[in-house]
Amino acid sequence: MSVSVENRPTRLRSAVAVLLAVLILVPAGYLFFRVWQTNSNERDNTKLEQLGVEYLTVLSPLVSALAEAESSALQGVSAPPPSLTAAVNGVSAVDQRVGDALGTRERWTGLREKIGRLPSATTDVLQAHVEVADLTLALYNAVRNNSTLVRDPDNDLSNLQQAVGVDLPTTVTQVSRMGDLALLLSGAGAAQQATLGPQFGAAVQAVNTAVGSLTDHLQAAVDDTNSATLSGNLVSSLDGFRRGVESLTRGANPGGKPDGSVMAIAQSQVQTALIALSGTTIREMTGLLKDRLDNLNTQRIEALVAAGALVLLLLVVLILPLTGRRRRVTSRRTPGDTTRGMSVSQAEAERGYGNHLDQMPTYGEVNPTRRERSGALR
Fold it and tell me: What is the pLDDT of residues 212-249, one digit of tens each?
């Protein structure tokens, strides 16, 4: 009974330690699960956005090539420019790789078929190219939506994706259309002018709106960003692009006769500035997403380290009481303090019988002097 009574406090302490460990482990485990789940979702979204940026990168040359093809077709050149073939192949390669993840496979397949039929359009060339351009802009929106770029929580990335996914392609498309319509109006009769005039006016208005929106979004991105290179890289590219658009607008001369030479120079300037601006914006978006993914990976490692430290601490809390109990039991037992292997006489001696062994009567023993003493008495 004394052993169980002595162990009772130790068992109580062990039970309390286990209970405290459970009370700590359960909420800590739930917190770790929520942090891990949030981190995983953010990593998945960031990787999906990276795929979206990769797709937008190849769509930018496609928009420029389609604008060039539209101008060539309206001037009577039926063969598509080499840039269009290269751009289509570039988009096809990326869509083959990431189209399933972004849900763009079916949309791109339909658009590619319509692009392939552009050289055969002979009756309404402008309308055929307008339809293809609109479908291309719709593909931009599909990429932005399906890659979650349109819902990015950071202000700089949100404005950059709006600029590169909406403002830039819209500006390029409308600028090219404005120049083409201006040339068509210069040689059109009264009936055609009645039809082309409103289209030209709408294109001019669309260009002004798109350029203003592009400037606002890029400025908003610069005003709220952690990138040290965004401001400097965008300023020069944006200024060159805006100057090219302004020169093209002056060459189109809304309300008067367009200047073909000025427009040709302006279109070349716009294309050069577009490549620089689009490339700068894409690079900045790529860098920002990479930094975010690196931070999320670091947070994941920190969470794992914290969880491991907590588990080790709980193991120490659970093991220490058992180790202390064994030490106490061992300290109470000295070498030889055991009755195992002890002879019966030793055990009896320890119980107090050894002191009376010489006083106890012996039976069967013969004392050689006893007979002599008894004889003498007689």
Answer: 899 899 989 988 888 888 877 787 788 888 888 888 88
Query: For residue 351, is it within any domain?
Result: no
**What tokens does 188 get?**
């059109």
Please indicate, yes or no, if residue 183 is contained in any of the structural domains: yes
What pLDDT is recorded for position 114?
94
Predicted structure pTM score: 0.74
Distance CA 34, CA 40 (A): 10
Q: Are 118 and 69 in contact (CB under 8 A)?
A: yes
Question: Which residue's structure tokens are 């005039």?
Answer: 197
Token pair listed for 90: 């570039």
Question: How far is Cα 289 from Cα 153, in angstroms, rounded to an integer?
Answer: 12
Say which residues have a Cβ less than 8 Å from residue 118's Cβ, sequence separation at least 6: 69, 73, 80, 128, 129, 132
Domain count, the chain: 1
The verdict on residue 115 lying in a domain is yes
Banded pLDDT at 331 (limits 50, 70, 90) = low
> In this structure, which amino acid lies at residue 333?
R
Give the domain extent around 79.
20-305
Determine contact, residues 245/171, Cβ cutoff 8 Å: yes
> Rg of the chain over CA atoms, in angstroms?
45
In a domain, 87, yes or no: yes
